[in-house]
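EI: anyone free to look at a 75-residue chain?
SC: sure, send it
EI:
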Amino acid sequence: MLELRRNFQVLAVLPGIGHRRLDLALDPAIRFWPVHAYLIGYLPDTRPLFIARILHGARDPEELRAELGRPKEDD
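SC: here you go
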């Protein structure tokens, strides 16, 4: 998707614009940036920029937490 590539370039130049999602990932170094229905997970201190994951927003949050190493949240 061309829009994702454009955002990769933006993140490479401005890696601090993403936000932490401690509800999804235990590692506070991972930042997230939304692009339409997707979340780009990346490590802002890497050169070249390391894209860790591209996640679709329609996925089950519990599945995402498990995949990213975050324990299941209690209700």
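EI: The domain at 2-67 is CATH 3.30.2310.20 (YaeB-like fold).
SC: 👍
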